[in-house]
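Troubleshooting log. The previous structure file for this entry was overwritten by mistake, so regenerating from the original sequence record. Sequence copied from the archived sheet and checked twice against the printout by T.R.
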Amino acid sequence: QLSNTEMNKLSLFFLACLMATLVNAQELRARVNVLSSRVSNNVDKKTFQTLQTALNNFVNNRKWTSDNYAPNEKIDCSLLLNIESTGDANVYKGSLTIQSSRPVFNSAYLSPIINYQDNDIIFKYIEFQQLEFNDTRVSGTDALVSNLTAVIAYWINMVLGFDYDSFSARGGNVYFQKAQNIVNNAPEGRSISGWKAFDGTRNRYWLAENLLNNKYNIIHDAIYNYYRLGMDKLYDQEANARTQILNVLSMLNTFNTENSNAMILQFFLQAKTQELIKIFSKASQQDKAKALDYLKRIDPSSANKYQEQLK
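Regenerated output below.
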């Protein structure tokens, strides 16, 4: 029979294990930075240091999934909030740049998954206010206050969705659904944008719509094949992996032909330009020519880069 001292030690041991599990369970290794150089000088810049700390805590201390992550499994991502003053007190507008990456098997390389700038950012913040978010009640009593956490939560679910999609076929759907739920219940106000179909053709509404539109299911296959059959095999089956990635480009070319203005294609490719150039720079002349033809069709904004570096 254990003594009281031994029982106490055992209890402390199990408590320590539980705490370690809870700490390691969180999914993200996120860095949130707030740039306030364009905010008027009459605002105390310490406010934005407080906001940066609060946002880092909001993202990194919240449990976003039901899965447990070991420290080496956490998803690397960064959010850069670049803000400026508006005509209203404590109200700021600007952009949010979201970047996330995913480790490639058998290497130290991190492959970029998301590299996107959301320009529809407006919110209200008073130093030390609580950053609150509720999946079931996205919009709070003050739309401009709740818009900040709604936007951040939306993008975190996108980071999770793309990461899960890259490891298992259509594995990200639950997080894309969560993102769409935020869209459907987003804060509304005269100055708030990015959540509605009529706000433009490239915004949070359309990205969620594209990812859950059955007409565009091939995109999920492309993400999975690109990573699991391509990138994850690149270091031990290079030729075969490059063939698989070329097949993905063929899939995306077909998708582009049938859906020329879908946001999701350019969103996916925006993080991939330099990676694809590096992959096909070592290809045979025949495969390089095929890749160049596909890339110029599906990613015309980077056509000159592909032409110059894959000629």
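The longest helix spans residues 143-167. Archived copy saved in two places this time.
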